[in-house]
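Troubleshooting entry. The earlier prediction with (6S)-5,6,7,8-tetrahydrofolate gave an output that would not parse, so I re-checked the input for stray whitespace and re-submitted. Clean input:
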Amino acid sequence: MALISPSRRLRRTPFSDGVEAAGVKAFTVYNHMLLPTMFRSVEEDYHHLKEAVQVWDVSCERQVELRGPDAARLVQLLTPRDLRSMLPGQCYYIPIVDETGGMLNDPVAVKLAEDRWWISIADSDLLYWIKGLAYGYRLDVLVDEPDVSPLAIQGPKSDDLMARVFGDQVRDIRFFRFMPLDFQGRTLVVARSGYSKQGGFEIYVEGSDIGMDLWNALMEAGRDLDVHAGCPNLIERIESGLLSYGNDMTDDNTPHECGLGKFCNTQTAIGCIGRDALLRVASEGPVKQIRALEIGGGPVPGCDRWWPIKAGSKTVGRVSSAAWSPDFNTNVAIGMVRMTHWDAGTELIVEAPDGLRPVTVHETFWN
Ligand code: THG
């Protein structure tokens, strides 16, 4: 691949100087912003993530802030997950659907207060959908993108690193909960969450000006923990079954097709825009669904388009993400498979760019 030309439309982040000094080797573009994808090599980064601790510039997880008396009502319009029992201090993974039940995004919702929420979005321009709804429904709520940039601390040594910078209270933060914690006299939201299954935190850095101070403080505090700059890791996230919007699903898919039915309470999510459509399709059940897949042969090439999955001459699915896993000594993958062929153990053929390969429907993901 050639280089990416810098421009002001391709946004840098408060941590870009640190990322570059750490020797970033590749970026992707996510929410019109730079997202690192590799430091040493995807495999070295993978092993290090599972053994030590990494600091990730995930500023591209942009926040849509909802502020005002109708904020809670607006979030419930967006999602089939019932939010009535959600308390301030909690984070929820929420599928966002349109009027047809199609997925528009799969963000983390952060409830700061009854009348103040952050929607920490995946890669689609959700701000415009939310602003449109707020305007169209004449809601009393302000919708904008604040100067908040998440910095993730991921890996088994995350608690030790975070305790050195934020104090021992971080150890008491429960999964998908947050605490407001002090850094240099500023209060930052610190949640136990992140796009890996190796454990860790996300710091919602409010105010770009302190970005590099925090980055440097973490790097210095973690020297003897072998802290390193890292990024969401393709291999680890496939093993963990963490979905990537735009790759593994699009607005053509319902949450049920994506295996996100467990984050839907469509019956009781009163107000949700896609509720009627989802009630209709949920009564039948999906006819295709996300599956963990194992692809035979040596390391697969990069997956930059859907690879057809065949049963004889019939197309019965697609591979949307794939990578060689050093720990499992096989190619791990995520794909969508039709009901007729989705049972664990089913053996099919995938048309990879370098030829036909055997692909098996796996019982579960690997982490
Ligand atoms: N953290 C934050 N914002 C994000 C992401 C994140 N925005 C973009 C992207 N990632 C959104 N997608 C996901 C996908 C998976 C998860 C979070 C965001 C996730 N899932 C866990 C799982 O599926 O096992 C836990 C879900 C749960 O139990 O509630 O963490 O990573 N801030």
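This one parsed fine. The chain has eight helices and 21 strands.
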